[in-house]
Known about the structure:
By secondary structure, the protein is mainly β. Helices cover 10% and strands 29% of the residues.
Amino acid sequence: MTLIRWQPAPLQTEMNRLFGSFFDSPTVVTRRFTPPMDLVENDAQYVLRADLPGLRPQDVKIEFDSDVLTISGERRSEHESTEGGYRRVERATGSFLRSLTLPAGVDASKIEASFTDGVLEVTVPKPEQTKPHRVAITATTAPSATLGSEAAPAAA
């Protein structure tokens, strides 16, 4: 007899998520800031673009270690006080860290970064591919032996 794992119907799962988050969640919800990133590859380089609205270049740190490119930083919230009313905060704040593993052989000194209008662009040159080295074969001529004749032993 085979066992089949029970999985709830999609509607039941969605209802459990909706009511569970409605009744069980705390009144203050914090959202984690995870910047969206694109990684584009062309013939000569990798180009990473990250949307970091509201951040300044000094709020972001870029590190490259052991073929891993890491972008980290923090978006701080503006603390505003409101009394006697409701307030809704939808913008995520907090620290973030994104890491990408790149191919071996990237020269860290050639990585460049720019920050324009809230978009971080990091350019990573591709490592030079090792080209196969062709080894030339030289032909040597060996003494030819005639078929059917045996070499006479050398006289002492």
